[in-house]
Specification:
Blueprint: E1 3-8, E2 17-18, E3 29-38, E4 46-48, E5 50-61, H1 68-71, E6 78-92, E7 100-112, E8 131-132, E9 138-150, E10 154-162, E11 180-184, E12 190-196, E13 200-201, E14 206-215, H2 220-223, E15 227-241, E16 249-265, E17 271-278, E18 308-309, E19 313-326, E20 331-339, H3 344-361, E21 375-378, E22 390-393, E23 396-399
Parallel strand pairs: 13-20
Antiparallel strand pairs: 1-3, 2-3, 3-7, 4-7, 5-6, 5-9, 7-21, 8-9, 9-10, 11-12, 12-14, 14-17, 15-16, 15-19, 18-19, 19-20, 22-23
Length: 402
Amino acid sequence: MTAFVRVVSQIPNQNMLVGFPGISATLPRLEGKVEIRPTVGISAPVSISLVTISLQRRETIHPSADSVAKKHLTAPRKEITDQVGKETLLFRCPTGKEYENVYAMDLPFVIFIPFGRGGEELARRVPPASLQLPSRTAETYYEIVVTVQQGHTDQRKHLFPVPISRYDTLSTFGMYNRPDTLDSLTDHLVKLNISLPRWSYGPLDPITVNVRLQPNPDWLSKARKITVKMITVTIDEEIVYNHEGDEPVRKQKTLAKQTQTVGVKLPEAGYYTNLGLIFPAKDMRDSDGVLPRGKQAFPMYSVSGFTTTGTLYKIEYYLTVKAHMTSAKDIVVRKAIVVCPLDHTQCKKEMEAIEQAAKDAAYINADNPMLPAPTIIKTDDLNALHALGMTMVGNQRKLLIE
């Protein structure tokens, strides 16, 4: 009899993902149980020899998938599969037996997600978040792999998608809230300085840029002739496919743009201004205003992409400020920023949950986590059919009436 396998959370209606991936203090992990039942009927025994569980990450890229003309002319989709963490043995039949006949099995499990701290995990990357770009030009998704062996020959793998997000880029972290400045000097006449109050942003977050143009005091006579025509601020997204390979492919697009017309001579004290723009958000509703059902392997984000680095691709964001001038060369400053899939308000709400998860994780031993005992109903157990709601009356199986 072929086994019916499914993976569920240990507590009904609760997410299997516990903790916050990317934050080591919360011990991010997947907690659940594997349920094995007969495929046909309810009381036919299933022969089980071995059950293991693991988490695997799949990445695919096809840089030309967004172009109908190039899609079939370029190289096919590239895909890699990598195991995350360790494979865990959930059940093995006793030595000397080929299999164990069971009516039902509930096998609790916990899979710790690497967080890059301590011992052998030090050299391992924190897994990137689940993401699917438009037209599937790049995607990362995770699957729980349950391997069930029935006898010597029949071994089957059952795949269950699980979405995973990253929380180490929240805009509420102090590391992203320090003011950051950057200078650029195209020629010897003018220096462009920009300052950002913070440098992590989410959908619909306001971005404020302090811009400062200063003349070179050694060349004031020439600097007085300079006219500042306009100042432009843009947010650029750069996707690098196969960035660790021999032939990386770069694609860049502008997400938002703000232009301020100035038209004044450059003062001796310099020119100061503030420019602001809103980070664009993706409308998740369709043309009828209905929020569609999300895909099981991918969380629903209000942005088309965010800062992430995988094996086959990476996504980076830049804030570019350009000063257009006469009698001097245009000056460009390009500053890398971090894009988070959550806006600033949502990030604030997550901070309390992260703090509580860190307190809860302090009581967990990653080397020997306490799990509920497995439930295995064997055919030769006393009143084994009671677990299926049945009993034997004479030589016939009848529904059990309590």
